[in-house]
Design a protein that fits this description.
By secondary structure, the protein is α/β, with parallel strands linked by helices. It has a domain of about 150 residues: Rossmann fold, CATH 3.40.50.11890. Helix content is about 50%, strand content about 10%. The protein is globular, with a radius of gyration of 21 Å. Bound molecules: iron/sulfur cluster. The site of iron/sulfur cluster has 14 residues, from helix 4, helix 5 and helix 13.
Length: about 400
């Protein structure tokens, strides 16, 4: 069974680079952004075309990036730097302005390197480390206002609240529809896979936002027709939840290994997945209101927080695990991704208290660790399969 709208989306993605090229010829400007707290609604409301710069899986580009950024920089950022150096990625080629945030300091480093070596026009949004404090909110509102001012200069116009309100409403509708679609992938007798939904989420990083919303609504209508009432339950599958470092377009190594090993992915809290679309509540239509909505979401692992009991990242992970009825977590850490690597052990310990096993897979974009990863993933999936069958038997 296939969802026809997904085919349309694949085709639209093929056409998108040329469409951007034409839009730029007609005077539009493309803002390439990356980060966790970049308020995309502000970029959109100023009339820019936002595209997310997130690509991975190419070890050769990582090597190229290492000529400009330290070899201790995470492979994701090194690949991005490498891609700017080569300038062959069809989306990077079309960017006029870059908007990076400093949620992860390696992202901030990428902004510096790209500006310095490739002479790109980069706007950086500073992000407070102690995000839970009131002073941090004041600071972030100030930085968001400054970020808006810098983009206004480039747009040649001021941001008006009515347009910002329209952009916020559009993005809210996108998030709401994505959340509804996400329920279907985790359901019993699912008609759409997590992998298809994951690609669908990432398509939104690149497509025109109004068109994307319409395509999401079509997808949801198709799903509802095929499966009227999706029920999520812990069936006998090896239900896997993916957490940890982002998995951007171009990087599907771990996902394909899990699939080949017979695991069924039913959820994620990835920065490149559903997480940024959850819990974004913009209470006031202004740059400050948008900024605070972003800051109050589930925090990114790069922002330090020491009290495990009140850690909202861990609370969200528990909530999503419960919703998806996952049996175990595969925690993906990219080489030199310190934020997620440092949090692997504490995450494992916290989940162990709830009886949820976690396997950390530490990897990079080279294929040399493929077999070792496969062996470990297969063993983990076998372990949780046996465990879930025992639980089923005991319950019967
Ligand atoms: S969170 Fe990890 S993968 Fe992402 S930019 Fe930071 S170090 Fe790199």
């Amino acid at each position: 069974m296939s969802i026809q709208t997904l085919e349309i989306i694949r085709k639209r993605l093929e056409e998108r680079p040329e469409e951007l090229r034409q839009a730029r010829k007609n005077g539009h400007k493309v803002v390439g952004w990356t980060g966790y707290n970049v308020p995309e609604e502000i970029v959109h409301a100023l009339g820019f075309i936002p595209v997310r710069i997130a690509l991975g899986g190419d070890d050769r580009l990582v090597e190229v990036g290492a000529r400009y950024a330290s070899s201790k920089t995470c492979v994701f950022i090194r690949e991005i730097v490498g891609a700017f150096s080569e300038n062959k990625d069809p989306y990077i080629q079309q960017t006029d302005i870059l908007a990076f945030d400093a949620t992860c300091l390696q992202n901030y480093r990428a902004a510096e390197v790209i500006e310095y070596f490739f002479k790109k026009d980069v706007v950086v949004l500073a992000v407070p480390r102690n995000f839970a404090e009131d002073d941090a909110k004041t600071y972030f509102v100030h930085e968001a206002n400054e970020f808006t001012r810098l983009l206004e200069e480039r747009a040649g116009r001021l941001l008006d609240n009515a347009t910002l309100g329209e952009s916020v409403a559009l993005y809210n509708d996108i998030r709401k529809t994505l959340k509804s679609i996400y329920t279907f992938q985790a359901a019993r007798d699912n008609v759409i896979s997590w992998e298809e939904v994951y690609d669908l989420i990432q398509a939104g990083d690149l497509l025109d936002k109004k068109e994307y919303l319409s395509l999401l609504q079509q997808t949801l209508a198709e799903l509802t027709e095929l499966q009227h009432n999706p029920v999520i339950e812990a069936d006998c599958d090896s239900r896997i939840f993916i957490s940890g470092s982002l998995i951007p377009r171009g990087d599907r190594k771990l996902i394909s290994i899990i699939n080949l090993a017979g695991g069924r992915i039913v959820g994620d809290d990835l920065w490149s997945g559903i997480l940024p679309h959850l819990d974004l509540d913009i209470k006031e239509i202004s740059p400050a209101g948008v900024a605070l909505g972003y800051l109050n979401r589930t925090p990114h692992a790069a922002l330090p927080y020491l009290d495990l009991e009140s850690d909202r990242r861990l609370k969200k992970l528990h909530e999503l695990l419960s919703q998806s009825r996952a049996h175990g977590v595969i925690y993906h850490t990219l080489r030199y991704c310190d934020p997620f690597t440092f949090k692997a052990k504490e995450t494992k310990n916290v989940l162990a208290k709830s009886g949820i096993p976690l396997l950390e897979i530490h990897t990079e974009y080279a294929g040399s660790d493929y077999e070792a990863m496969k062996t470990r993933v297969e063993a983990f999936i076998e372990m949780i399969r046996i465990k879930s069958e025992l639980v089923e038997e005991e319950a019967a």
